[in-house]
Structures are given as structure tokens and as C-alpha cells.
Amino acid sequence: MTEITWLGHGTVQVRLESGEVLLFDPWIEGNPRFPQEHQFDRVDGLLISHGHFDHIHDAVPVAKKFEPKVFSIFETSVWLERKGVKNTSAMNKGGSQPGPGGITVTMTHAVHSCGILDGDQILYGGEASGYVITLPDSRAFYFAGDTNVFSDMALIRELYRPELAFLPIGDLYTMGPREAAKAVQLLGVSQVIPMHFGTFPPLTGTPAELSRLLGAGGAEVLELKPGAPHRW
């Protein structure tokens, strides 16, 4: 079984059945919802959807400590290398490459911005992206990062057949529950894990509202608690 641990906001840890650990969009220091008792014992793959501080803030220290394979879009990868990160693995949308533990990492589209705050400057970080992770047992999940719903989510369904999706629902900076419900329909997933909600007062979307919009017989909404592992 794969173990999924939501770490607040858009940060997710996935421990593969073989033991390798994937970490998505690491925001640890300053993340109001990060479970302070959580400890990282290893990170084998670090996946970054885009360059906003609440998704890349701790990428450099985590990468330097654990030396994982670091996946990101090309321009963000160049920025990470300039910060001293090793083992970067730049890619772009539609590309796939092998990852730790026999997974396949595929980069997908996202509708969002991607400026990297570096000191008092905002640098071009490429474009925001998402990921489809295909496990050795052929199951797949979709990590959307920050995005609005977009019609080509239907292509993600057709090409990769994910069973589970991590979707932002907070509204204002990403899609809210209304748009996320449409995303679930386009993706055809049977389960969805909401993220990027409730961290700050403006992020008003809730898992309960998403469940209401999906209705009876819709995809199962897994409302995870930060730091509590979920077996999948």
C-alpha cells in the first residue's frame, strides 16, 4: 500500500510501498498548517509544481539535506541549480521520466502563474505544472499543484487514467469547490484529496462544499488531517 500524508496547504508526502518517499511542493517553515511533530526520515523524490513561495519555500534546504531527484519545469530547475541544488531533473509538459521506486513521472499542464520570489525580485520560473505519477502496480494519481479547472483535464483522463486526484479548492488563488467539482468530472477519478484551503482566511473553499457539489454517487472526498497518514 502507498502511504499519503498531507502536510498542510499544498505540501504532500507519499511513501511508496517499496519505502521511497516523494515530497510535493515543500512549504515547511512558516506554513500555518504544517504538523510540527512531523519528521522527514528520507526524501527520494522532490516534485515542484511551480515557483511561488508557498510551494518552493523549503525546496533548497530539503534538497541539500536528502539529495533527492528534483523534478521541476526547466526554468525553475535552472534557478534551483543556481542555489546549489544537485540532482535536478528538468522537464516540461507532456514529458515523462523514471522516478524513485520504479514510478513514472509525467508533467502536465496547469493554469496558474509561476514567478519566483528571490530577494526583492520576482524571477521568471517557467510555467506552472502538475504531475501524474504512475506506480509500479500501474495505478496512477494526479497532483494538480495550483490551477484552475481546464478542459484538457479530459486528456489527462484519457491518457493516464488516474484513480486519485489532489486538487486545490481554496478559491481566490486557485479554483474553488465549484471548479474543482468540474475538474473531478473531467478527470474521472474515483477519489479526490482537497488541498490549498483554509491556510489563510481568503482561502474559503471547503471539502464539505466539494462533497455537496459532487453529490451522492460522486467521487469520494478524502478529507485528510495534516500529519495523519492515509493508506491508498
In short:
This protein has helices spanning 53-56, 59-66, 74-82, 153-160, 177-187, 207-214; strands spanning 3-6, 12-15, 21-24, 45-47, 69-73, 88-91, 96-98, 104-109, 115-118, 121-124, 129-134, 140-143, 164-168, 191-195, 220-221, 230-231. The chain is of the alpha/beta class and 232 residues long.
Any overview of this molecule?
With 232 residues, the chain is of the alpha/beta class. The protein has one domain (3-231): Metallo-beta-lactamase, Chain A (4-Layer Sandwich). Helix content is 21%, strand content 28%. The chain is built from six helices and 16 strands. The strands form three sheets. Strands 6-5-4-3-2-1-16 form a seven-stranded mixed β-sheet, with helices on one face. Strand 1 (3-6) and strand 2 form a beta hairpin. Helix 5 packs across helix 6. The radius of gyration is 16 Å and the shape is globular. The termini are close together.
The H/E string reads EEEEHHEHEEEEEEEHEHEHEE
Assembly context of the chains: single chain
The CATH architecture category equals 4-Layer Sandwich
Text of the CATH class: Alpha Beta
Overall 3D geometry? globular
pLDDT below 50 for ≥5 consecutive residues: which ranges? none
Tally of domains: 1
Structural class: alpha/beta
Can you say what the CATH homologous superfamily is?
Ribonuclease Z/Hydroxyacylglutathione hydrolase-like
Query: Total strand count, please?
Result: 16
What is the overall pLDDT average?
98
**Main sheet characteristics:** 7 strands, mixed
Rg calc = 16 Å
Number of helices: 6
Terminal residue distance: 6 Å
Q: Which strand order spans the largest sheet, edge to edge or round the barrel?
A: 6-5-4-3-2-1-16
Beta-strand residue percentage: 25-35%
Helix content: 10-25%
CATH level-3 fold name: Metallo-beta-lactamase, Chain A
